[in-house]
Design brief:
The chain contains twelve helices and seven strands. With 274 residues, it is of the alpha/beta class. Bound molecules: S-adenosylmethionine (SAM).
Length: 274
Amino acid sequence: MVREVVELLGDRKVVVDMTLGGGGHAEALLQAGVEKVVGVDRDPVAIELASERLARFGDRFSPVRASFSEAPLPPSPDGVLYDLGLSSIQLEDADRGFSYRLSGPLDMRMSREGESAMDVVNRASEEDLLRLLRGFGEERHARRIAQAIVRARTPRPIESTDELARVVTGAVGRRRGHPHPARRTFQALRIAVNRELEELATSLPRAAGILAPGGRVVVITYHSLEDRIAKRFLLEEPSLRVLTKKVRRPTEAEVKRNPRARAAKLRAAEKVPA
Ligand SMILES: C[S@@+](CC[C@H](N)C(=O)[O-])C[C@H]1O[C@@H](n2cnc3c(N)ncnc32)[C@H](O)[C@@H]1O
C-alpha cells in the first residue's frame, strides 16, 4: 500500500520506519522528499539489503538493527510507520523456516536469536501448544493438532517445516479449495517465537509518546490479532485522532501483483497538539 503510505507520510521531515524489510516504503518516502528516514528492523538480513538499496540517499537514511519495542529512536519524529509481519525476502527463504510450502529448518526467528519454532514445538507441553494454537492461530482444530504434535515428537524431535506440515495435515486432513491446513499453526508459532503481539502493544504507546504534535502514525496489519491491537490503540489513545475512519484496503491490482497483500489493513492517526 505504498501509495497510501506516501499520501500520509510523504510530506514529513523525519519518519521512523519501524519495519524496514526490503526498504520499499523507506525508498518511496525518501523519493517523495522526506528529509530523513530511520529504518528499524530486527532482521540483520533486512538491514543489510535495505542499506544497500538506500545507500544513494547518504545520511538521509539511518538503519537501526533492533526490535521496535526497544530500538533507540530519534526525538520528535513527525511520522512513524509499521508494515507488520514478514517480508517476501523472509518468507521465500526456505532456510528461515517461515513457510509451510518450502522445506527448511523449523526456525521462524526474525532476529535469528533466541528460541526457535523448533524449540517451541518440541518443548512446549500439550496444554501450552493448545493455548498457543488457539490464542495466536485462532485454530479450530487446536486440540487435535497439539495432540498430534506431542505424539509425533516423541520418538524424534520435529525439525523441519515439512515434517510439521505433514503432522498437521495428518491430524486434520486437507480439503481441496481450502487454505493449507498448517497455515494457522505456522502463524501461531511465528507470532509466539517473535512475540509479535507484545512487541506491537509495547511499541505503539512509545511511538505515540515521541511523535511531534501533528505527527502521524500509520499501521498496516495482516491478521486480526494485530489489527485489533492497532485499532484499539489508535482509537483509545487520548493524544491521537484517527485519520482513517474507514480502514484502507489494498486495491485489486495490488492484490494481483502481491497476493499476500489481500489481508492488509491500513490505519492511521495524528497526534493532536498538546
Ligand atoms: C512486511 S515487512 C516490511 C516491508 C517493508 N515495508 C518494505 O517496503 O519492504 C516487515 C518487516 O518488519 C520486521 N519486523 C517485524 N516485527 C518487528 C519488530 N518487532 N521489530 C523490528 N522489526 C520487525 C520484519 O523482520 C520484516 O523485515
